[in-house]
Amino acid sequence: MADWPGLSIGVPRLSNTAYEAACTHYRRIDRLQHLQAIAGWDQMANMPPNGNEARSHALAEVEGLVHEMGTAPALGALLQRAAAEPLDEAQRASLREMQRAWRNATAVPQELVEAASLAASRCEHAWRSQRPANDWQGFSANLVEVVRLQREQARALSAGTELSPYEALLDRFEPGMRCAQIDRYFGDIRGWLPQLIRDALRRQESRPAVEPVGPFPKAAQRALGLEAMRMVGFDFEGGRLDESAHPFCGGVPQDVRMTTRYSEDNFLPALMGVIHETGHGRYEQNLPRELLGLPVAQARSMGLHESQSLSFEMQLARNPGFVQQLRPLLLKHLGEQAAFEPENLVRLLTRVRRGYIRVDADEVTYPAHVILRYEIERPLINGEIEVSDIPGLWDQGMQELLGLDTRGNFRNGCMQDVHWGSGGFGYFPCYTLGAMYAAQWFAAMRRDLPDLDGQIARGELEPIFGWLRERIWTQGSRWETDELARRASGETLNPAHFRRHLEARYLG
Amino acid sequence: MADWPGLSIGVPRLSNTAYEAACTHYRRIDRLQHLQAIAGWDQMANMPPNGNEARSHALAEVEGLVHEMGTAPALGALLQRAAAEPLDEAQRASLREMQRAWRNATAVPQELVEAASLAASRCEHAWRSQRPANDWQGFSANLVEVVRLQREQARALSAGTELSPYEALLDRFEPGMRCAQIDRYFGDIRGWLPQLIRDALRRQESRPAVEPVGPFPKAAQRALGLEAMRMVGFDFEGGRLDESAHPFCGGVPQDVRMTTRYSEDNFLPALMGVIHETGHGRYEQNLPRELLGLPVAQARSMGLHESQSLSFEMQLARNPGFVQQLRPLLLKHLGEQAAFEPENLVRLLTRVRRGYIRVDADEVTYPAHVILRYEIERPLINGEIEVSDIPGLWDQGMQELLGLDTRGNFRNGCMQDVHWGSGGFGYFPCYTLGAMYAAQWFAAMRRDLPDLDGQIARGELEPIFGWLRERIWTQGSRWETDELARRASGETLNPAHFRRHLEARYLG
């Protein structure tokens, strides 16, 4: 039997304090994550099929190193010693985020992380063919194992805290958010949304929209998207736009890699998708530069991240004044069409449709999709229901929330999303929290910038970006979310803004 | 003072033998190098300018890890124990290559590696502006330090061996090659090349070529290049073609990343460049699959690598039968032109010109550029001449070899290459060794495949690729270079083939 050549990754003892040594350590981790991010982006945007196996091994190798470094006992000791050092307020915040990263990395035994990851990637892989085959039986058999291991992880993460198991999963994506709050927000939305949808549908009946007529060549759409990205301030010296099957915003804050996909039938999904991802991208590009590499420099939460993409895509890009600004770009890249008349474009962009598919939903029906998932995944992780209960609850919820019959339609029902099969429980609420925060930011902005709509109509967007940059982007994770929201908008998350936004836009 | 959180990258003791444990270790190193390769390619092909600083740090971090892993004392102990284990012939060869990797990684103290790397990147960075400014004074001041540190490295590498310092640097690129051999080969070439150049120039005077008339749009050149790559067998399921300022073949064997650059004035440089890089690419794509990740699976040497790119670019792609095959591709992508007549294309592709610049040189004058550099860098590293002697020797050599006056023209003289400033001493000979090997492979192929030219003219290229695949590509580093050459062609490197090739093509 041969011994493994164990390595001690030693580094000169340059640091003066435990806090500084911990910073140096996290910056090293961040450098490895930089390569993960770029190689991961490449895997989606560039990699030929036969590169996948070697790439997966390479990414798993560095994933293991990152885990090793993030859970090193000596790091734990450093963080303990740092807590006793005299730190200023900013350093305290930075240490708080390191402690959070440490807890999340160490709370779950590595064997469990690996077992959960394996089960999830098996389930997700099979789901790719099970979904088109509408094979709930096959999918649920794998999902049972995924859920079992997610429950175990949730228990491990919640041990010694006051969190419920589901809250412990949610907390990784939305630190500080609790189910009591979400229940209140989503309960409120559930109260008025079905009627709002009915009213909005009735109102739009009297305002039919002219459909755009394709095909819209990919090259023209790409040129249009790039120009729209410039219009909303993306820094091309620190990022780029490519294509991938599933659009995302990846890379690193210094080099943001956005992707989109094009359908030649309709240019609006790619255009709005690009504007959406630019919201994510600008948040990343404007995180606090001097702190990059430290946990405190990261975006505050997934809900906050989504609040930026939705600020761009929903609050800004569907503003009639902005749509007017888009018109010359459309003429330049796609030519003239009746559908490009600004008022018609606004109708197209604010069209409400009850549909089965979350990712295709408009901003009015979207929360219904999220609430449905939250109401299923929370009791599922907490052990109050089982995988076999999902279809029935799904059918019932879709009937109540959207009046749609999904019985037997697993493909476009509870099997439509990649999240559950790949173990992403606790993520769904962030989408609607993001929409609510975005509405809140724009409500506060209207107070701080009284001529907001006029500025948008004149293409003067810098005040908006300056507002977001100063209050959100450059703050990273310096403040807990409630404090960030208070400093930015004067109050913690208040769902009234989201309702007012929808009522003004869809019933006004 | 805070301790550094040292990490022990432990791995279960799964291996039965020291040899297997060493294999596992090298495969881990290879996975990190995979990410280095992809992130390095991305840096050249995709990265926006502001991504560079973070990328450089990330690459340096993983470089440090790779160095740590490649020099781990426990690895040295494993290799020692493996040498006493009962290994078969293939495992012996694999161990030999691990030992070589170990020696190269450990012979030079890490501080010296870092100092040399720092001096080189400073010198190279300054060179980018000093070269256009013809600033020999500024450049040579930096180069003195680079040379000093390269001499130190060469001494460390040669300590305890029979190698001269220069040979120790050369050996990293061309294992087993010695100066006595190169002196013999290059001395031979020096004897007949100047006259051959004169004769070739005289002969082509009577056969003027029609110039192609541009512009040739980039998109058309790219489509042409992709089709030419398919024609010469590039596997697009395991690689791709992109653009970069300096063409190269990077990535990993499972996912080869070739780049090229386009000039709209002339399509031939990009087309021939793509065919050249495809030679490198196919070597990588056909290295022994089951051994990938181990040193023995790597390409044998830089000279051997160049022998593949030159087999494609010079031996194959300039064969009149191949040029005939290219013609329909040119018509399809670039339209009809008098210059595309096959006989004229052959003239364009075999035109000899005495020029200052190595990278623009044809295959006849190219060796003169290499010999000149070898005759300077060898005594420079061995301490027989100094940096200040370079310009004089350069002027003298260019006069003798190519009859060109380079006095005072540093920019297009001894400052033209990136190699010396960035510390790449010992690399230049590989270019001409590659050209000699390529001629030898095709001479042996003609013996083994008697209808070679007929097959090429009919587009039946698989016999050629099969010959290279079986004898060279899939052999990786299993054999020392002389043995590889003997098995492939029946003899070790024999410069007579290169001379015969040039005489047949340029004087025949």
Give the mean pLDDT of chain A: 95
The spatial strand order of the largest sheet of chain A comes to 1-3-2
Silhouette of chain A: globular
The first-to-last residue Cα distance of chain A is 76 Å
Order of helices and strands of chain A: HHHHHHHHHEEEHHHHHHHHHHH
Largest interface: A-B, 66 and 66 residues
State the total count of DSSP E strands of chain A. Answer: 3
Helix content of chain A: 55-70%
Oligomer: homodimer
Spans of chain A of at least 5 consecutive residues whose pLDDT stays below 50 are 1-14
**Alpha-carbon Rg of chain A, integer:** 23 Å
Summarize the structure.
The structure is a homodimer. The first copy, chain A, has about 500 residues and is an all-alpha fold.
Which features characterize this protein?
globular, disordered N terminus, about 500 residues, three-stranded mixed sheet, homodimer, mainly alpha, about 60% helix
